[in-house]
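Entry type: protein chain
Record version: 2
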Amino acid sequence: MQLGMIGLGRMGGNMTTRLTKAGHDVKTYDPGVAGTASSLAELRDQLEAPRAFWSMVPSGKITEDTFQALITLAEAGDTIVDGGNSDSQRRYAEAKEHGIHFVDAGVSGGVWGLDNGYCLMVGGDDEPISRLEPIFKALAPEDGYAHVGASGAGHFTKMVHNGIEYGLMQAYAEGFEVMEKSEFDLDLHEIAGIWRYGSVVRSWLLDLLHSAFELEGSHLEKIKGYVEDSGEGRWTIAEAIAEDVPVPVISAALFARFASRQDESFAAKVNAALRNQFGGHAVKSAEDS
């Protein structure tokens, strides 16, 4: 089956390789990669109607610019698949006005997806999704793909998936810090290793943590504890607020990431100053740090 892949970064490049290995005819466009189409228009001309374009570009302005260019270049009956996390319901409506299908595909798998496959959560209309199902099944491992609902459902499901991921990662992080700070000389690499077998907390994330300890040492000496977030945790919390759903674990995990980026917390300074004022408790001078 033919597909036009737009964006050959860490995800798009590996997805293209996996599809090609599965026998699909993938045409590509990435202005930063030699040997791809020179423009979106050239990519369009390389594909037979009804065309399918898969956009795998970073979130932000480039996502919107790519979408706007595609609805101008594509023809009625073509399909745009957005593999990021975007404003999918609005884009679905806008594409529909041009007679173009829009499918939102939440993609999970990271750098391991090339070999292991990508979990795909796909939202949109039945017709384009049924037509593109060979692509989805080639990308996903067995039982790792589903048409989860109408337009927006794919990206919504992936958003919540990543919010859950925040909580799971934070639980591992806190537990391993308790062990690292304990009086016992614990081999965290070994403990992560045995927890992968028979333990109720075993998971792929634990497999990855075990690998990290193997590469970086049990105290992760080479890594700075500075944790970014790519937005999905914030969006999950915002949606939970809109739905009156309590999500204390995901919220705490996001705030822990914020705290990791501070060299020193101003809130902690306020706490220290207040304890000193009302109780005479000693404070440490900034000059002593």
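Comment: The radius of gyration is 23 Å.
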